[in-house]
Give the backbone structure.
Amino acid sequence: MDLDGLRSAVQRQLDAILAHHAGLLAAVGDDGGSLVEPVAKLVRGGKRLRAAFAYWGFLGAGGEPQDVGGDDALVSLPTSLELFQAAALIHDDVMDASDTRRGQPAVHRQFAALHRVQGWMGDDAHFGAAGAILAGDLCLTWSDAALAGGGLPPDALARVRPVFDEMRTQLMAGQYLDMLTQALPLELSGHGAFETAIARSRRVICFKSAKYSVEHPLLMGAALADAPQGLRTSYSSYGLALGEAFQLRDDVLGVYGDPRQTGKPAGDDLREGKRTVLVLLALQAADPAAEAALRAGIGDPVLDAAGVERLRTIIEDTGARSAVERMIDEAVARSRDALATSQVTAEARAALGELIDAATARTA
Amino acid sequence: MDLDGLRSAVQRQLDAILAHHAGLLAAVGDDGGSLVEPVAKLVRGGKRLRAAFAYWGFLGAGGEPQDVGGDDALVSLPTSLELFQAAALIHDDVMDASDTRRGQPAVHRQFAALHRVQGWMGDDAHFGAAGAILAGDLCLTWSDAALAGGGLPPDALARVRPVFDEMRTQLMAGQYLDMLTQALPLELSGHGAFETAIARSRRVICFKSAKYSVEHPLLMGAALADAPQGLRTSYSSYGLALGEAFQLRDDVLGVYGDPRQTGKPAGDDLREGKRTVLVLLALQAADPAAEAALRAGIGDPVLDAAGVERLRTIIEDTGARSAVERMIDEAVARSRDALATSQVTAEARAALGELIDAATARTA
């Protein structure tokens, strides 16, 4: 099964899980449909990178589908990860007050719009957030239902469970660390302050993105295949380096990306005031006038297109963008090295190599 | 094991699960502690009713702990339910903007207070909600981890899973139905409008409370014991009737309860504008002056103690309180009948009888 085949198989399982649970929701009343619809729309999108890492993590360790209940059972792991990702995105968008996701209004904005269209009582934004909390909760529980009920044999499931558990707990902690980081004053001038800020930003990357998006899915596939420790260590090296490159690329796209490709408005990360490595490097290298302009514009929720363009130019001129591109190149090289020296199967080596390109491409 | 023994056993498992996950959080950084602390405080409270229903649902069906991996494995089901309940409460309090839970500030209020005390940047209420979303997500995943990793044999787990899944999905749908209900205009004067409103309120009770608090925990215990269909049907009759009585009692306590016993401020349900059966009956029976006073006061977030006292008297005078007490008595009687004619073991019959008293006592 190639990546397209995997994507189709995952989508079929997602459709089946949503249909099953829509039945459970229908027992509650006709209104259940409006709860599941935004979820169904969201899970039709996405690049399925986590699904692919879990899948190739398994095959790369020499795992045989028939040893874990067959192809459908194997695909239940990627499917579960995609549902978990949907839950994380839905709740993250509430926490970040994001407007857009995967080219559509964020789930909480969809519920708020429904509230307005229907002319319901109360605050539409509060209704939207509440609906999205519930929709995310549903995805979280459907994620573990997909894994537990996907046909994997008990011993295989028992091997995967601790990694699944660690992934879920550490992602929440990474998101919390991100929240805390955004809430701290951005002080870069004191002794060691810049280094501390960069270290903190990289720790957020590690837990909110690198482990969650690449390393843990690979390790879940490895656990399913009962892979030897040496291969798991290689997966971690490959995964953490690639995950870092993936997040740094995402940060660049958050400022410079084309909305048609990112599915988010141009410069959205600037409006949200995200303290990415890109932004920190720009602030550090900026002259006083440029720094003042950056501090005034970053985090301004009503920053317009001209303002975004201005900030883009300033960041580019500080050299921060090319510095981040070099960091991406360096992380990609570390990832390729880890893959080259690992004991994965030949087919998986090729697939995981292509996933480096897919995860770090300059177009989203 | 009696109820106190079960409570201790559940608390030991909760402590162990929190300690294990605090270790995973510590890997992310020192800040993880502030994420788990409000959860630890919350799960030390509660009456453990759901835990008890699951436990007695198992024993009442003749289940033997040694057949499902021993006492600790059996207790993992009640523990999982208590963690799920913690998740539901944390997220529900965000959605309802509640201030207090189990005698302490609601989890989102604790995060908001931390934000203020630390003098962090940004909006403290938004930070509080975001922290509570993450804390609730952690409880959801820990609930699943407690059940999956609690030592129950795979075949037993496979029997419990579908009920667990149904419970979680239908609770979210019940909460959504509750949100929708609060957002609709309260129109009681049209033809059949009152009956429609009451039917809707009872449907919320059924899914948000009766099934979730009593029926599903019992059925999970029954599934664990591989109980015959006849007993499951009895459990459903007992559970739905008792669950309805439990929620109606909760509604009465939400208006008339003693804060020292409910753990919530006096009249909190009135301030939140909950459309309980109690409130609907009062509105229906009120004369125009009383109805106007009810409509003005219910849902007023700054309603003071004197206002609460005034509304209490009006509701009492309409006869709604005694009508709800009669409904509770009638539901309790149905529950007792179902228990009396069921095929449960003698010991479980006694315990489930006592749980009727515990769940519907006039003091919280």
